[in-house]
Amino acid sequence: MSLERFVTDAISPWMTEEGPDSDIVLSSRIRLARNLEQYIFPVVASLETASHVLNELKEKTAGDSPEGVDPLEYIAMDELKSTEKQVLVEKHLISPNLTDYSNHGAVLLSNDESISIMVNEEDHLRIQCLSPGFQLEKALDSANAIDDWIEEKVKYAFDEKRGYLTSCPTNVGTGMRASVMMHLPALVMTQRLNRIIPAINQLGLVVRGIYGEGSEALGNIFQISNQITLGKSEEDIVEELRGVVAQLIEQERAARNSLLDHSRIELEDRIYRSFGVLENSRIIQSKEASKCLSDVRLGIDLGLINGFSRNILNELMILTQPGFLQQYAGDTLGPNERDIRRAALIRERLKLEHNN
């Protein structure tokens, strides 16, 4: 596997698979924060210490992988161009924080990109496992297998009372963040989501944008995750999140049916106008493109638009981000240049899909 594949293919192989409730739940994710016992945490560590962590983990994982997983590809941040790092962020393979530690950060990636292990981010290790659709248990099983595999090679910072020790106190305990990425256009259109979010927060969960904390919910895509990691088991956290997500799925479906029953013409008009914008625009900003792509995906899911797969929308949501646009251009682009290239790419991709 070459680095070029990771930064040129917009759709990760795991994303092409259909998962349960994939019309609403794009992906399920489990992330585990872990630190090595003998080293200072990355947020205060010296470059020398961080280099020791990198070397030790690279040496102990090189050419190896858990059972059933191809050998993981090691990618050092200091060997990447800024646009390549941005592409990995846009594909959710690394966090924006990891790019801040480019002198001593790295990521280990599986062949299908469903497994990502960041080294020297906020913690020594951030283990991420992704599954298509609503499959939190599957993602948890994969994360536990990776966690056990690494723990056979290194000793974690662990306290009998507090659990896994992490840089941020909010991660102490299980060190686990369970999350799902959801497409909730109907709840946004009917303004029901604004009433639901406070109730979700009261249950110890948080609703964030597409790239996590501090990010905007582009294209009506929201990330729902747990906030509490101490005093609960991994299974309890997943079960609580599962219950809330199941209710959100039910309410989103009800909102979609309500729009079809009571505002069908207005809904169709919105969807087809957005489709026309994508097919004909010569210049389009990222926010408008995301909004139109969300509308068209809703049209596909409701059977109002035929001949296009959901994957084309998933692909375009990533392809039209700044990092990918500049990666394809092979050059740094200004905002206006990106908007022109974004419009051209969308037109060409939709035309290709239509012809096929």
Automatic annotation (TrEMBL):
It is an enzyme of class 2 (transferase). A motif (RDXXRA motif of the pArg binding pocket involved in allosteric regulation) lies at residues 338-343. GO terms for biological process: phosphocreatine biosynthetic process. GO terms for molecular function: ATP binding; creatine kinase activity; protein arginine kinase activity. Keywords: Allosteric enzyme, ATP-binding, Kinase, Nucleotide-binding, Transferase. Its EC number is 2.7.14.1. Residues 24-255 form the Phosphagen kinase C-terminal domain. Pfam families: ATP-gua_Ptrans. It catalyses: L-arginyl-[protein] + ATP = N(omega)-phospho-L-arginyl-[protein] + ADP + H(+). InterPro entries: Arg_Kinase, ATP-guanido_PTrfase, ATP-guanido_PTrfase_AS, ATP-guanido_PTrfase_cat, Gln_synth/guanido_kin_cat_dom. The keyword Transferase applies. It comes from the Bacteria. Appears to be allosterically activated by the binding of pArg-containing polypeptides to the pArg-binding pocket localized in the C-terminal domain of McsB. ATP binds at residues 27-31, 92, 126, 177-181, 208-213. GO terms for cellular component: extracellular space. The keyword Acyltransferase does not apply. Belongs to the ATP:guanido phosphotransferase family. Catalyzes the specific phosphorylation of arginine residues in proteins. This is Protein-arginine kinase. The gene is mcsB.
